[in-house]
Amino acid sequence: METPSLFKRSPPKLLYPALIVAAICVTLFSLLGIATMTGHLPGALAGINETSPAAQSAAKLAAAPCADCGVAESIRAITVKGSGSGTGAVIGGIAGAVLGNTMGRGNGRTAMTLIGGGAGAYAGNEIEKNSNRHMVWQTRVRMEDGSVRTFSTHSQPEFGVGAKVRVMGGQVVPYRSAS
Question: Is-contact 95 120, C-beta < 8 A?
Answer without folding.
Answer: yes
